[in-house]
Amino acid sequence: MSAAPPPALHLRGITKRFPGVVANDSVDVILHAGEVLALLGENGAGKSTLISILYGLYQPDEGTVELAGKPVRIGSPAQARALGIGLVPQHPLLVARHTVAENLALGSGAALFPARGVAARIRELSGRYGLEVDPAARVSELSPGEKQRVEIVRALLGGARVLILDEPTSVLTPQEAQGLFRVMRELRQDGRSLIFISHKLDEVLDIADRVTVLRRGKVVGGVPTAGATRESLAELMVGRSVDFTRKRGTGTTGRDTLLAVRDLAATGSRGLPALRGVSFDVARGEVLGVAGIAGNGQSELVEVLAGLHPATGTVSLDGVPLPAGAQARFRAGVAHIPEDRIHSGTVPSMTVAENVALRQYDQPPLARGLARDLGQVDDLARREVAAYDVATPGIHTPSRLLSGGNIQKLILARELAGSPKLILAVHPTYGLDIGATDQVHRVLLERTQGGAGVLLVSEDLDELLSLSDRVGVMVGGSLLGPFPVHEVTRESLGLLMGGAHPHSLPGAEPGVVGGGAA
Ligand SMILES: Nc1ncnc2c1ncn2[C@@H]1O[C@H](COP(=O)(O)OP(=O)(O)OP(=O)(O)O)[C@@H](O)[C@H]1O
């Protein structure tokens, strides 16, 4: 009688402690050959820590990693790759001015692996797994989805048998996400093992065979996805039932204009036009959604409105032209939840309390003359940390030690503290778990009920469709629409983002972009 083969990967009793927190607490995870395992958990549950251990970025305090039944030591990412563990990062690490083949040859040691040989291997892998990667294409011309496929090819070139995909769909259109899932199915068919991290439960149900759920550093359960539902997975994650009903309730957007933007033009960081004559209004109480593939001007639009980027054209709030400069705009009632939450949203070396107080530091009651009232700073921080449920060992902890989701809550607490009139929210729930996402959505909608307007830039089309009153699409620095939300669908937005003309969409008819309601 022969014993069953050992699993492709077995994490046994992994414990990792950081000051004040046990990030992984005796974690056991099994991954079989030819399986897609989703790792689920709230923000701060310990997913990134576990992945970092598997990829050799951290050493566990206790526990072992076994590959095909053999204990291994993974001292660095290079060792992880040599052992057949590949990571597809959330943000591809590619040199824009080089071709795909040059990038992959560079990464694998050019002397051993000339670009010509690499090109042939890329073509072979790309054909085998339906990856559609052109080795001669210049990286600067690739879409986010194409860059991601290059990273997958890189991992496969390195011989990965275990592939970690960390929130891989967050930068993709729905069509591209389906393309990625097709590739993942091919890889699984080929006997490779995949670990998939996502906060989007529909995707998890679609692509994963099994889920393992972490809560506060511990494995709290694991189930096959066959027979699971969005609700059952959410409950396993947060330990209580979660309401998934659509939240947009107002529908009765006031028609008086809050924000009027006319003919905005700006150049991007590389000196090329980033905004080409953008005009639109946001009404009081309205959520205006902005969809688009990264790099089509959304970032510049928000930075211009926040007073961080120069532009020509006019911007007025409540009929008054907005003053220049970020701090002056904040005082005029413009809040900004930025795209790069770690670097432009917080000062990582400062404490949680200092980061909460950042916008009000020079104002009473926090400022007394030239001095700060540190008691007031701490009181404000304690109130906001409690109100937004920020998980932190304390208010004097440096913010860089918080998980991504908790940093985002910190920014929201700070930006929304002064009852802004206009909220510029860029990917406000990016990387947030369902509980925190729900909280952010409710906070934004509460503010619209109080008369604030929201400009919501998001790559999550479900989020745009469930919160927005109207949705526009940024393509090549121009804004298409905005269209009333009931006139667009996930599919039509995806096609517009990809460059389709509104009138050319399947099923397009007057008043409806791309057919029926969402
Ligand atoms: N380098 C570090 N130093 C101190 N604490 C850390 C460090 N890295 C992570 N932590 C803490 O460990 C816990 C687990 O964090 P981790 O980033 O693994 O969670 P996560 O599940 O990936 O969360 P998210 O979904 O928000 O990315 C959190 O409480 C976090 O604050």
TrEMBL record:
It comes from Deinococcus rufus. It comes from the Bacteria. One of its GO terms (molecular function) is ATP binding. InterPro entries: AAA+_ATPase, ABC_carbohydrate_import_ATPase, ABC_transporter-like_ATP-bd, ABC_transporter-like_CS, P-loop_NTPase. Residues 9-241, 259-501 form the ABC transporter domain. Keywords: ATP-binding, Nucleotide-binding. It holds the Pfam family ABC_tran. The keyword ATP-binding applies. PANTHER family: CARBOHYDRATE TRANSPORT ATP-BINDING PROTEIN MG119-RELATED, GUANOSINE IMPORT ATP-BINDING PROTEIN NUPO. The keyword Transferase does not apply. This is ABC transporter ATP-binding protein.
